[in-house]
Structure formats: C-alpha cells, structure tokens
Write a structure and sequence with these properties.
Oligomer: single chain
Largest sheet: 8 strands, mixed
Number of helices: 17
Low-confidence stretches: none
Helix content: 25-40%
Mean pLDDT: 90
CATH architecture of the largest domain: 3-Layer(aba) Sandwich
Number of strands: 38
Number of domains: 5
Radius of gyration: 34 Å
CATH topology of the largest domain: D-Maltodextrin-Binding Protein, domain 2
C-alpha cells in the first residue's frame, strides 16, 4: 500500500498562525527599497516621509484676475469705481502665478470692469492678501507628511511629491511563486479545449492566488503545472525558493497516495504545521525551506481560498509591512440551520440582504469545491471550533466583503429555485436562497425574507399559491407578484434510453426527487395520487436535491435515470424532457413591501423586454402576466 499523509492531529487556527509566525520571525526579513514616488502606489512606507520644501513654494494667486497693492484700493466703491492702469496699478495674473511685491492682493476677474486694453475699474477695496495663498499654506518644510508603516494611496503620493520627495523608501513587494501540481492539471491558459482533449482539470486556483497576491501587495509568478512526481516536485520547489520570497504549492497537501508535498518539504526543509482545525481547508502545510516560507494549499478552490486568507496573508503582511485587513461585520439572522462538527472552525459562505430593519444571511453551498459560492458570497459566517453550529433564525456575526450600506439595497429572496433568479440577479442586487416553496413562505412568515418564490399547487382546486398564502398569513395584507408560467416535466438522459413517457414510468427507473415543501415535489405527489401510485414504489423518491439544476446534473450522471424539473434546466444540461404540465411560478410578499425601491426594480425587470428575450432563449417559459400584482386580502 502506498504511503498516505494521515493526520495524527490538527492544530487550532490561532495556534497554527502563532507557531508559524514565530518560526518565520527567526528567518524572515522584510526588504526595503528606495524608488520613484510615483511608482509606490499600494506599497508601505518603511520610514516616515518629511517635507523637503514648502507648498506652495512662494506666495501665489488663488484666483484668475489682477494683482494689486491692497492699500491703493481703499477708496474704491460701487458709487465711485476706482480706475487702475496696467503696469502701474495692477498686473494680470492667473491661478498659481507667483505674487511678488509690491503686489499683495488679488481681485477676481469677475469683479473687474474692463475699461479698455490697459485700464480697468474696481468697485470694492481689496484687503491685504485677499485670494493669495501664502508660502507653506499647505505644507511646511520639515513637517512629517506620512508616517512609517503607511499604505500609500494616490493622495499620499501626491502629498509626498508636493513636499519635494521624488523618491520614497518602501517595503519591497515580495515575489511569490505559485506551483500548481497534479497529473490531471493543465494550465488555465490552455482553456476548455486543452482540458477536454486530455481529460484534465483546468488550473484556475493559480489565477485566484495571483490576484490575491497582487491585492496583498506582492508580485506573483505562476509556474507550469508539475506532475505527481516526487523528484520533479522537489526540483520545482527548490528552484522557486531560490527565485522567490514565498512559495505556494497548490494541491498535493492532503492524504492521497500521490500527495508528495509534505514529504518533499520534510526532506528539503522543516514542516511546522500539517493539518489545521479549519473547514474547509484542513490539509494545509506550513513549512520553511531554504529560509523561505513554503505553504502547501489544498486543491479544492474554497479550501484554498480560506487557507490563503488565514495563512498566506499573514506571511505577506510580514514582508510588505501591511497591517492586515479588518473586515466590517454585521449581525444577521440565519435563513437556514447550520450544523457543524466540534472539531473545526468552519467558514460558511453567505449572501446577505436587509429585510426591514435587520440583515438576513442565506448560506450558500458548503462544499470545498463549490467555487461559485465564493463568487456569490457577500461574506462568511464563521462557526467556532467546539460549536455544533447555529439554528435558523439565530442572530450571528457575518464577516463582510461589501459595505453594510451596499447590502442594505439588496433584495432578499428565499424560496423555490428557478434559473430566472440568475437572470434577475444580473440586473439588480438579489440575495437568493433555495429552500423550496413552503420553506420560503415560512421564512416570509418569520420576517426573514422580502419575497418568497413559490409554485405550490392546491390539489383540490388546481390553483397555484394563493390558497397557501391565505392559510399561512391570516389577517395580513399580502400580495403576489406574478412571475412566469413554466413547463414542469421529467428530465432523462439524451435519447431517453429507458423509454420513459410519463410519471407512471418512474416506478421502473432510478429517480432523484426535490426536497419536502418544494413545489415540484408537490406536483409529483399530486400526479402520483391521480394515478394511484404509492411514492414508495419509486426507487429514489427519498433522494433529494435542492435546485432544478442540481437534479439535472444528477440525471446527467450514470447512477440516476430521471428527475422532475423545469424544461430550461433540462436544456441547460443537454437532457431530454418529457412534459408533465405547466405551472405558475410567482413571488409572495407583504403588500407594504411593494413600495420598496428594490421591489419596484424587481418588478421592472420582470416586465422588461430584455427579460422576456432571455426567457425565450432559455425555453419552457411564458411571461404574459410577468410583473402583474395580485392583492391577497
């Protein structure tokens, strides 16, 4: 059996950072450089910057007009305008021109009456030093302009140059080598075609790291992918450590048979930590080789991102002089229950929006490979180690990527899933969480969402949505924004190899269902009841997926034959589709919420021609009533 990197124990996050930082402090030195001030944007001052001259360097005009001797203008008034002669009583002057004696005041051009080419009249006295910027008004020679340890902004550079500093001493940008590893990895620059041709995985992590290094003030260099070969990896790491200040090895840090990184680092250096109590991101390696930090990051994108923020950024801060990022936090109500292991600190990506006077956080996909959850996230909910998690409706602290003000204009949607939510989110700021129609209406009942997408069929009347809203919100003034009609059906593999024709045929295939409370599941149950079929007769009735696209993706695999969903999801995944029937997909909300600007923007999108064109392209939708308001008393 091949040797595996089994974890005997994992280290808490704070302990891992402190332990690694203490070891790096013994070998790491932040280098400084003196360079042209204009090239220092985003770098940190290694020494305080003092003014080498005054600004302005001389008394200068603050306005366009004429320079005069203030004492000569004392008799000027509107009743008796004073006549001045150019060259004798005044000179013409522009903003920024030096003011030299005997002139000591400026009269704005707007206040000057032109008599002829060499004479003007003024209608008021000019006090001494009127509209004159005295020498050193802004900067005094010798004063400190910028302290050491300051992250240089454009305004800082301008001030330094105004104070006579052509060059600045700053912390040098660290060079960071990024080494992707794995037999299955191809360069991201080869694109889809390169990966498809070889059955490989596109390296996207390296470009994420490169961007994060740049944001942190470093200079990234992406190396060619290194295959799973011990000696080749060792050669690559040694070369990178020689050429760079920090080395990141991506993938190969876990317990796989071909995960060589930790063994290589133990041979050529010291492994300080292998395995941290963090989820996702446990198999991180913190090492030193050739006197340089070498960090092994896991291959899953979310794990890699979280480990970079927790373990790579502190190292880069040591080299750049930066103090680190203090993210804004808000208290928010959770829309879903979050259960966690006691063993790890867990980072859960969330969308955040405001419902009335409180923020609501909707958890996104938690898998370590769910890269899109990073794209969609507004922040993280951190579940501490030794905590079992949080309940739905519980108030938690969220670390934000965006400002609370920006999130205050985000429309919160909790309920049934449809691909049109992505189309709408391309037009307005929309935070959507998919918990099924009934789950959304219950969230609306608790005040945790502004709108609830729903498509619940009343099995007795055949009516959609209205009866459920009346039952759940007695005595409350509610409304329904009409969304789309859409075609529900059975998604099967291309060519329909099992010859499935309708709901009755689901008893002879492997099925994947939607979660309890989902409108699609209600429709299936309705059809099964009409046919007198016991749900237990369907293999997979209890196997659940939370979105139409998740069902489609599972059907596209070998182990699932069919699943109920919408036609647009089937088209998106290249599946065949057997129509079951149309349904109404609408949005429930309180009547008072109709006046909200973000709701009005939402309605405008539903009514727009561009939205209707997108629906036509996706297929399986009708939009005759989109954006119409139905009042439910």
């Amino acid at each position: 059996m091949s040797k595996r990197n089994l974890y005997l124990q994992t280290v808490p996050v704070e302990e891992a950072v402190e332990k690694y930082s203490a070891e790096l402090a013994k070998v790491l030195r932040a280098d400084t450089e003196t360079k042209a001030a204009g090239d220092c944007l985003g770098q940190v001052t290694a020494a305080a910057v003092f003014a080498r001259c005054c600004s302005p360097l001389f008394n200068d005009a603050a306005m366009d007009g004429i320079a005069v001797r203030a004492a000569d203008t004392r008799t000027a008034s509107e009743q008796e305008p004073l006549l001045l002669t150019e060259g004798k009583d005044y000179i013409e002057i522009d903003t920024g021109d030096p003011i030299r004696l005997p002139y000591d005041a400026v009269i704005m051009a707007e206040d000057v009456l032109v008599e002829d080419e060499s004479h003007v009249r003024i209608t008021g006295a000019a006090p001494a030093w009127q509209h004159v910027r005295p020498i050193g008004e802004d900067i005094i020679e010798g004063e400190m302009l910028i302290p050491s340890g300051h992250l240089l902004r454009p305004v800082d550079i301008a001030a330094a140059i105004a104070g006579g500093n052509a060059e600045l001493e700053v912390f040098r940008r660290p060079r960071v080598a990024i080494i992707p590893t794995g037999d299955e990895i191809v360069s991201g620059l080869d694109g889809k075609e390169g990966a498809a041709a070889s059955g490989s995985i596109i390296d996207s992590n390296s470009y994420m790291f490169s961007g994060m290094v740049s944001e942190a003030g470093g200079l990234a260099q992406i190396y060619a992918p290194v295959e799973d070969d011990y000696e080749k990896l060792k050669t690559a790491v040694l070369a990178a450590a020689e050429e760079s200040d920090v080395v990141i090895v991506n993938a190969g840090s876990s317990a796989g048979r071909e995960d060589y990184t930790v063994h290589v680092l133990r041979e050529i250096g010291r492994v300080i930590v292998h395995g941290v109590a963090i989820k996702p991101g446990k198999p991180v390696i913190l090492a030193i080789a050739g006197g340089k930090p070498v960090i092994g990051l896991p291959g899953y994108p979310v794990s890699a991102y979280i480990d970079f923020e927790n373990f790579v950024l502190p190292v880069l801060n040591m080299l750049t002089g930066r103090q680190g990022t203090n993210r804004k936090t808000v208290k928010a109500v959770l829309s879903k229950r979050l259960v966690s292991s006691l063993k790890h600190r867990e980072y859960v990506r969330v969308r955040v929006g405001k419902v009335k006077d409180r923020f609501v956080a909707s958890p996104l996909a938690r898998g370590a490979g769910a890269a899109m959850s990073l794209v969609k996230a507004d922040g993280f909910c951190v579940i501490p180690q030794n905590s079992e998690g949080f309940e739905a409706g519980e108030e938690v602290e969220i670390e934000l990527y965006k400002s609370p003000q920006e999130l205050g204009h985000t429309l919160v949607s909790i309920g049934s899933h449809d691909l049109i939510l992505d189309v709408i989110a391309d037009k307005i700021s929309l935070s959507s969480s998919h918990v099924g129609s009934m789950g959304g209406l219950l969230a609306l009942q608790r005040g945790e969402t502004t709108i609830a997408p729903t498509h619940l069929l009343n099995m007795e009347t055949g009516e959609y949505n209205v009866s459920y809203i009346r039952e759940l919100f007695p005595g409350r003034k509610m409304a329904l924004i009409k969304g789309v009609t859409r075609i529900q059906g059975i998604m099967v593999k291309k060519g329909n190899p099992l010859g499935i024709k309708g709901v009755a045929d689901l008893t002879r295939c492997r099925y994947v269902n939607r979660q309890k409370g989902a409108g699609t599941r209600v429709l299936l149950d309705y059809k099964l009841a009409q046919l007198g079929i016991d749900p237990a007769a369907i293999d997979g009735y209890d196997k659940e997926a939370t979105t139409h696209m998740a069902v489609a993706a599972l059907v596209a695999r070998e182990d699932i034959d069919a699943g109920m969903g919408i036609e647009s999801a089937a088209r998106a995944m290249g599946l065949d589709f057997i129509e079951v029937g149309p349904e109404e997909y609408d949005f429930a909300l309180a009547q008072e919420s109709l006046a909200l600007p973000e709701v009005q923007d939402f309605i405008a999108v539903l009514k727009s021609e561009d939205f209707h064109r997108r629906l036509a392209k996706m297929g399986g939708y009708g939009w005759e009533r989109s954006g119409e308001i139905v009042i439910i008393d």
